[in-house]
Design goal:
9 strands, seven-stranded mixed beta sheet, globular, alpha+beta, 196 residues
Length: 196
């Protein structure tokens, strides 16, 4: 855990809910490709999907996402996206369809207890402080009683993100190309994870 005064926890319900989610959206906007130079995208990574507040509120009702705060400022987030969220983010429908056809450890993924990491992002000024790992470890602590693994996909161009996911414990289980990019489907199997 970083020595800086960060708090890593679930988004709170109640009064703090909308302000915290608005900060998530602001951080997201700052890390979408249009806001970054190609050099920044290559060196620092980027996010690809833009959400809106109503969608994040619906996702929160199913399973609160994890945020890192410094004081009251959201400086990192990792969105929890159970399969029920599929219809709410149409751009991700092809990913959910693909996941239904994959196998992991000889079993169809669709028959396993998994959720999708909707997106993970750490503010530029707070990278290198251990927050990426802390977000994922909080996910595991909060959700391992409901799920056996977490799955996400990362652009193969996003080498920083791929390295960070591998460091946490994710393995690449599939790679494919669509009209936009080439993607690595990565999975962190909590049942097989004994080292962390």
């Amino acid at each position: 855990m970083p020595s800086h005064p960060y708090v890593v926890r679930a988004v709170q319900s109640g009064e703090a809910l909308e302000p915290e989610l608005e900060q998530v959206l602001a951080l997201q906007r700052r890390n979408l490709p249009p806001a970054l130079s190609p050099e920044e995208q290559h060196a620092q990574g980027f996010v690809t999907v833009q959400h809106d507040l109503p969608t994040l509120l619906r996702m929160h009702a199913l399973a609160p996402s994890i945020i890192a705060l410094q004081g009251s400022d959201v400086v990192a987030y990792a969105l929890v996206m159970p399969r029920e969220c599929r219809a709410w983010v149409p751009v991700l429908d092809p990913m959910f369809a693909l996941l239904e056809g994959l196998e992991h450890r000889g079993r169809p993924l669709k028959d396993q207890r998994f959720y999708v990491m909707g997106q993970v992002c750490v503010d530029k000024a707070h990278r290198g402080m251990g927050l990426f790992d802390a977000l994922y470890h909080q996910h595991r602590e909060q959700l391992r009683s409901r799920f056996g693994c977490v799955v996400t996909e990362v652009s193969v161009r996003n080498t920083r993100s791929l390295r960070a996911h591998a460091r946490v414990g994710f393995e690449t289980v599939h790679t494919y190309r669509d009209a936009i990019d080439t993607w690595a489907v990565v999975l962190w199997d909590w049942g097989a994870d004994t080292s962390r």
